[in-house]
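Quick one:
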Amino acid sequence: MDIVIWGTGHEALELAALCDLEKVTITAFVDGASSSGSTKLIGCEVISPEALAERSFDALLIAEKKWQDIKAKAVAELGIAEEKIHAYYHERFALLRRFGRPGLLPDEVSDEIIAALDSKPWYHAVEVFPGVSTPGPAEPRPFLLDQLPLTAYANKRVLDIGAWTGPYTFEVERRGGIVTSYDIQDPEASGYNLLRSLKHSKAQYVHDSVYNLAGHYQKEFDVILFFGVFYHLFNPMLALTNIHAALADDGVLLYEGAVLEFAYNMDPVWAKRKDRMGPYLEIPMAYFTSGDCYGHWSNWYVPNVLCLREWLISAGFEVGDMYLLPGASRAYGMARKRPGSVTEHTR
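Output:
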């Protein structure tokens, strides 16, 4: 069977590497920016979309995130039969069962499970089978967990706030932790329950807001993960004080999220102020907007590093080093619970 892969990036190369070359022949890659077929990729010709209309092939596999637009163009402008077109992001597991290497997907995985995997609106790219991950846009960052030694999770009670599809939950469990996932997302709709079943995970899931955390847990966890959440909250201080209460004495918080540093790379409002960012970073302050912030309506408070540090200290934590992701407007670090509780002035 002759196939063409639309795309020349990481996903296209990943798809090509997973194909069974005894079963299929990759005859070309399509580069939307190409105007000629003079280049090659892993030994295959790279062609323009217009040249695709003159090709004979059995299937066109789109390995681009904007696959809907590409499919519409291929049908309407290039005259390609719709039944020949398949999207790696939309039907990944079915495609790998059809075109993938032997053993890539275990034989015992039923067609029903394959269909269920392809039906979920994946947010994280979570490895399901060796070398095969869900097509989520958010890549997990294992180095966030590596702030603690590998053995530090063994038999420790760990809470993963903002778990969503569960990449950190399952990784901490692999490292020996006793994990509870906590999120406002429906674990059935997000795909979490499906992954938990496939991974034979023993993790529990609490479907609730971090604002209600104190009603569930008091001094119960040795480690709490708080990745990608605080800037989505109207009241980040309430969340941090609840986390402080849920940690055992001397417990550890690992955190990560959006900050103002390098905001000009992430947000058009701050891109206009790139040359005037200095004063905004010299005192503890947070940017707030009810509109589109950093490309999404659900982002509210975005602190600078100094402000994030003050939030953590005010919530009752000893704060160690804080790090910036290279070139990104995000910070991460580790904080340890101080004894006692923190209260605001009431009179």
